[in-house]
Amino acid sequence: MREENGVAKGLFIGLLTGAALGSVIALLYAPKSGKEFRSDIKSKSKDLLDDAEEYIEQAKDKATQLINDGKKKSDRLVAETKVKVDALISEAEDILTDAKGKAGIFVDSSKSKIEKESERLKTAVKAGVDAYKSEKA
User: Fold this and answer.
1) pTM for the complete prediction?
2) Strand, coil or helix: 100
3) What residues make up the domain containing 18?
4) Per-residue DSSP letters for 1-61?
5) Which among 62, 43, 59, 51 has a CA at the least distance from the CA of 15?
6) FRET partner for 65 with CA separation of 20 to 30 A, picked from 1, 17, 91, 93?
């Protein structure tokens, strides 16, 4: 897109320069009086100025259009990104909830096993102590 703008700008500048030089050369070789010649130069310079103003106005309109298009695209990208981020956050929350549930089940299961083993150990220690006392007596 920049190449097109550069080519268009170069073409326009070349056109203006060619028109100006052609006008000056034509005026210099035309058999006219000084007053007519000055009037023609003034007229041609006014025409060139009008053309330049028109080109500037078109450039402003194009720049405004490009800026607006850029804003629309960036707004759309931001909205799409927000949707994707929200989906990722939701998925992460689901995974976290699932992990918490599995961890809770594992902790409860492990706690139950530890309590059973603790009771078995206590019973074994108590039986050992009772056996020691009965052997001693």
Assistant:
1) 0.44
2) helix
3) 2-136
4) -HHHHHHHHHHHHHHHHHHHHHHHHHHHHS---HHHHHHHHHHHHHHHHHHHHHHHHHHHH
5) 51
6) 17
Domain count of the chain? 1
Structure tokens at 103: 């961890």
pLDDT tens-place string over residues 39-73: 877 888 888 888 888 888 998 999 999 999 999 99
* DSSP-derived secondary structure for 59-84: HHHHHHHHHHHHHHHHHHHHHHHHHH
Q: CA 80, 63, 74 angle in degrees (round to 5)?
A: 10
First CA to last CA distance, the chain: 105
> In this structure, are residues 44 and 23 in contact, taking their beta carbons and an 8 Å threshold?
yes
The rounded distance, in Å, linking the Cα atoms of 43 and 46 is 5
